[in-house]
Model the fold of this input.
Amino acid sequence: MEERIKWVNNQNARKKGIKAGVDSFSENELRKVRSFHKSFPQYEVTPLRNLSNLAGMTGVSGIYVKDESYRFGLNSFKVLGASYAIGRYLAQLLNLDIDGLSFERFKTEEIREKLGEITFAATSDGNHGRGVAWAAQQLGQKAVIYMPKGSSLIRLGNITATGAEGHITELNYDDTVRLTAVNAQKYGWAIIQDTAWEGYEDIPLWIMQGYAVIGHEALEQLNQQGVDAPTHIFIQAGVGSLAGGIQGYFASTFKDSRPITVVVEPNKADCFYKSVLAGNGRPRSVTGDMDTIMVGLACGEPNPMGWRILWDYADVFISCPDHIAANGMRILGNPLREDPRIVSGESGAVTTGILVEILRNEHMKEIREQLLLDKDSKILVWSTEGDTDPVNYRKIVWDGDI
Done:
């Protein structure tokens, strides 16, 4: 595959007409979700880093990075979706409203006796699976996690350290999702997956709502720093659940005055880019091994729920080669002057990598102008994971492998 940056403007994003509903990501809904997260003793708002020197060097007003490496001590944002979905699932089993329920309540002997033994199953390259396994461990329940071909043994070890059962398959991500579904049906497991299919939409929506809390936190933090709203958002997409949740929140909050949103994918798994390029509103898939360093984004089939939101509201979709993510890791790990250092993994750093490339590379002038990036731009980007594979992180940042 040609190693170049490709981008497409989504002509549908600013069209008037009937749009995908985003009420599930409203301020009121996310306050309820965040209330549940706050019931975890591990909950803290993750840092929003102001890279003022990088902004000055690249000619914009502000670059703000939401650093998810601090989330629950698990080095990734994914636990927000997994924990909330599990909470909603258990509340539904108990015929209770999640509003007002705490995570600690689910750990009581009374509730555990009512629930019995449950096994939660998921497909993951590591971060989502670790979140599911951790939540199951906290509740005294079981988890089985299937990982796609080529997954990191370190990430597998992080999963099994919780007491969960973990397997690396010989299949790509999307085929591993199907394997998980088959085995869950066979053994009576509860699937906690961040992509939807026919008859399976509640849990993916709850996961997306859990992810959207990151946007809720970030806007609150921007306001505390004197910024009413970002002018631009750069968000990465795997199956699109995070991107859809973040887009849903900002579309619900700001409506037609929402920030310009840029969705970023690896070029080996750019199903959203290809879907928008096709231009007819129907999602496209990518098949094969999808051998990118951005393993957390190596997903070939869009989450239909995330796709509907992104097709209706996100402005530009970019397909990136691996070296853009590697550059992002180095930029964040080696900041300018007093800018804070951010340890960001391969999937986490791609948004910073592509933003800096667009701002500094004269060959990117067309997209820079298309995005209206200028001295007044206040840009919010997401570092979705830390060094979840520390060995590979050092190979890239220290040794310059890519």
Q: What stands out?
A: The two ends are 16 Å apart (CA to CA). The longest strand covers residues 260-266. The chain has two domains: 6-77+207-397, 79-202.
